[in-house]
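Lay summary. Proteins are chains of building blocks that fold into shapes, and those shapes determine what they do. In this project we predict the shape from the chain. Here is one chain we studied, written as its sequence of building blocks.
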Amino acid sequence: MNNINDAQNNPHLQQPDAANGGKQQVIPVMEEFAVISREVVETGKVRIHKTVSEENTVVNLPVVNESYHIERVPVNQVQDTPPPSVRYEGDVMIIPVTREFTVVQKRYEVVEELRITRQVTETPLMQEISLLKESVQVERTRNGEDSTERF
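And here is the predicted shape, written in a compact code that computers can read:
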């Protein structure tokens, strides 16, 4: 009875087989499993060279100077109203200089005018400056090969 219970509880066991002389036969059941692993393999090496070079360059840096020429022009003109404080004639700024004097009525005499002319000159200035420049070289060596790639 023990054999029958074992056969019922264990599907790998079978009933006695008449062809095998009444002996029970055990059939193994197998299952395969995949085992996956990862391995780092060096296939080559890369060497990077970075160089910084300095080159001198001449650049033009203009220097701008402004100067003013002042001219005194006598006018001696009598007016009943004061003239405008400043006026322009082209690039010339004119500033009237006045004085009051008493008469039966008040009048203005333009004694002189200041004429101010702006003069702009530009002088080139050549100056040497240093500029930095980088360059990179990359070399790759593959395992198993004697050659080296450069790019």
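What the prediction tells us: Helices lie at 2-9.
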